[in-house]
Amino acid sequence: xxxxxxxxxFCLSARGDTTSTSAxxxxxxxxxxxxxxxxxxxxxxxxxxRPGLHRVTLTAHGGRHAVDVVRRNRLAKxxxxxxxxxxxxxxxxxxxxxxxxxxxxxxxxxTAALGNPTRDPYGNPIPPATxxxxxxxxxxxxxxxxxRDFTVERxxxxxxxxxxxxxxxxxxxxxxxxxxxxxxxxxxVCVDIEGHPHELAAAVGGLIYGRAA
Length: 213
Prior knowledge:
Blueprint: H1 2-15, H2 21-28, H3 32-44, E1 48-52, E2 55-58, H4 60-82, H5 91-98, H6 104-113, E3 139-140, E4 148-155, H7 160-169, E5 176-182, E6 189-193, E7 196-200, H8 202-205, E8 208-212
Antiparallel strand pairs: 1-2, 3-8, 4-5, 4-8, 5-6, 6-7
Helix pairs in contact: 1-4, 2-3, 4-5
């Protein structure tokens, strides 16, 4: 559970999302009191800091641990997709289990066997085995300027239904889509994919990150 917590906190922080106790509890599918107890435990171990009542951050020590977990997790996703042919709506949950069984030696062997991949199937960079690593996310599709082409670079991998929908539309990293106006009713994001208009729910549009042309 500690590794899952550190990875989740790292990913939320990198995207600029809230790192409140309730947000972490939702992502980890745990009760809020359980996460609060984890806060105390990890703060005592010097892995996290609590600069505010509703905010948690990784310490330098915790950040190093988190990056190692993220590396193993993303290597596992590449393995599951490329060697086992699993769909990207499946590999997230399986990688969350597999990451805990990957030793440093196995991670090195996996990296070589996979051809030294630089990104996982969702477009997430794979951190190096050593050295500093800072992760920056590109622009969200929801925040992109309308009526311009938008190249998908990364997709958030924590919404299985959303991933299935995007896969069905062919929206993968590297795909260029056209961003249209947001719907005034519910914040839906209107896009054009190969000449076909589609209206994405706000939550699904929020999974897509990239850059405008």
